[in-house]
Amino acid sequence: MIIRVQCEIMDMNYSIVRSRKRKKTISLQIDTDSRITVYAPSFTPVGEISRFVEEKRSWITKVMRRQSLQSTRRIEKRYTSGESFYYLGRACPLEAYYDPLEERGVTLRNECFSLNCPDDQSMRKFYFVCWYKDRAMHHISRRLEHYSSMLGLAHGGFRITSAERRWGSCSERNRLAFSFRLIMAPPEVIDYVVVHELAHILQKNHSSKFWDLVLEVLPDYRMHRRWLRDNEYRFNL
Q1: Cα–Cα distance between 153 and 145 in angstroms, integer?
Q2: What is the DSSP secondary-structure string of 188-204?
Q3: Is the per-residue pLDDT at 9 higher than 90?
Q4: What is this structure's pTM?
Q5: Mean pLDDT value across residues 102-117
Q6: Which of 19, 37, 114, 127 is the 20 to 30 A CA-CA neighbour of 58?
Q7: CA–CA separation, 74 vs 208, rounded Å?
Q8: What distance in Å separates the CA atoms of residue 27 and residue 21, rounded to the nearest whole number?
Q9: How many CA atoms lie within 13 A of 81 on its CB side?
Q10: CA neighbours closer than 13 Å in the CB half-sphere of residue 120
Q11: Per-residue DSSP letters for 98-157?
């Protein structure tokens, strides 16, 4: 059972999501619209949750400032010729056209996108999302197989989502999920997210043991994590 509660500390509003499935840890998530959600076990006292949020205040402020800056950088896609779309960290220009005698959809050749579709923004976005999801499924499947074998870990399957900021997740049953937008990032950044979620199979938190495991596999993971944080605004569709 999940219970949602709206709370406030000083000038900071946040929601509490209590769950019986969550054992001990408290975690915090900030959405793209700066909404704060705290996830906690059902028995956790409100006072303990409040102290947790207060301890995270400086980090919350930093994240919200970064989100505010990135929101000013975001440019709505029009899906017209000349725009750039990212794939594996590379910005690839788009040629958009419509030929009813050719198959509709997105293709990528010589680091240039071609989109055959009527001049309809929602339809053009649909074809791009389908293309990205397909590529993400194939690429992440291979990287999961590689790192699962390396770590000797078995996950409970994975899926591709449309999440805008949550690049990956690992459920209590070790089922993994990855945003299709991740395929826009460089391969080494994708690997970081894959290893991050696999590490949660052993450590369901972000303790020092968790980060030590990530570090063992990817000694330069901090660089990739920072790149993802600083460039996520580029992956809007």
Answers
A1: 10
A2: HHHHHHHHHHHHTTT-S
A3: no
A4: 0.72
A5: 95
A6: 19
A7: 34
A8: 14
A9: 9
A10: 8
A11: --TTS--EEEEETTEEEEE--S-HHHHHHHHHHHHHHHHHHHHHHHHHHHHHHHT-----
